């Protein structure tokens, strides 16, 4: 339960953890999901596990409690009472902390009923006071068969659990097929190494969703609670510290969005995943600029592949959730719109299924695990002698150079702006997007706060306008694809209306885009010092 380690955390903020000998109220685990329970058999028979003795099989029945107002949930805590062979254990857990760490306290109890005195001992004092005498009720349960063994691996001690079963909330049921690797002693990098070894025998994808997260989503509906994954860089950070602070939240966001990608009803799932991948690509680009990390180029290619696999789903999301509703909301002709929307939703379902296939496959899972392992090792320092010293330099200088280079690339792509064709605009938009992500990260550490906000806003307006015009172009392409496939007369009329609106958007947007471009070229600054002219 209370895993500790002496190294640095891998998948989030990379904060130092307590020494391995000290017991803490913290578990460190890596959770991996399978596509179906049958794949767990392949994991159990993997050579690294097949010869290990001491396997135990347990039947676990867990009930999760909260108040009617979800006071525990909203404060970031979960309360569970688990029955295992006639014994009961009450457990309080908090939302994930740094990296793979997670606050946990537990105590044996006489029954599945909530004992208020014991609960008060398990909760932090302020949370116990806030809960007061509010009644608790069961919200959902989990019935799990767990195969469990403790393994010595790569100088660490790791508990391996293979879980198969169900989460039940009323009449709603969700299957469970996952692997949990909990660090009992040693380094967190061993968790990733073991996960990569096991992924050779079945597709495994890292997951940030606990059983309680899945249970609440099942009981309450929706994708579940959003996690905060804000990147915060400061002027006094070294390159090494800044890269850790960048990769950690980006990886956490990517892992958290894996289960959301498959759901067409959750359009933010694909978008959030693509944002996370862009931040990861930005970090890898910075590593390559610093001549560090022999694997950075390989990882960047894989991240680019995965982002490409999600592009089609994002395009259909924008058409279905933004462009078509904007037209129908304007009280234009509605005949045929229902049929058109149905056709669009069919394509969305297929696109999300394709994205989910990519996300839950072995290639994407290995990519995320490889990124976690590489980050936990600070792999960007794995280069020729002197790499560690290079990354000990302040981030501020690298930030200035990166911003200046990206700014030059944007200006180069935007040369003769009035004559750019569609392909030229596309390449310009990509460069502007890269500069925008870099500006969000770096301008606040190379400029005064007020100036940074002003310049980021100027760039954001240009990025948004380029994005709106690109969405209009892409929507028109998708609608013409539907026309070629064949539509009913009513749906064809509805399509013509939407196409006409996109034509208006493109026509009117041109003037706005030219203004945004002019504002950008005149006002945007990267914070690089200018040479004074000699009088």
TrEMBL record:
InterPro entries: CHAD_dom (IPR007899), CHAD_dom_sf (IPR038186), CYTH-like_dom_sf (IPR033469), CYTH_domain (IPR023577), YgiF (IPR039013)
UniProt keyword Coiled coil, yes or no: yes
Domain CYTH: 25-222
Coiled coil regions, renumbered to chain: 452-479
GO MF annotations, alphabetized: inorganic triphosphate phosphatase activity
Enzyme class: hydrolase
Keywords: Coiled coil, Hydrolase
Lineage: Bacteria, Pseudomonadati, Pseudomonadota, Alphaproteobacteria, Hyphomicrobiales
Pfam families on file: CHAD, CYTH
Keyword Flavoprotein attached: no
Domain CHAD: from-to ranges: 236-532
Documented EC number(s): 3.6.1.25
Name of this protein: Triphosphatase
CDD domains: CYTH-like_Pase_CHAD
